[in-house]
Amino acid sequence: MFAIRLYNKRIWVASIVLVSVLLGYALSISPNFQSTEYSGMDTMFRWKARPSSEKAQEAVVVMIDESAYSKTYGYYDPLPRRYIAQLIDTLAVKGAKAIALDIAFFDKLDVLDAQGDSVLLRSMKEAGNVIAVSIYNPDDDGALQDQLPHPFFKSGLRGVGYANLEISGAGMLASARDVKPINTMGNGEMVLSFSSLAFCVMNDLPTDQFINDIQSQEWAYVPSIPLTEKGSMIINYVGPPATWIKQKDGSWTQNSEGNIITYRSSQLTTDISWPSDLLKDKIVFVGNGSEFVPDRFVTPYYELNKNNWMYGAEVHANAFLTLLHKQFIQRAGSLLIIGVLFIACASMVFATVRFGFTGELSVAIGLIIGGWVFAYLLFTSGVW
Question: pTM of the prediction?
Answer without folding.
Answer: 0.87
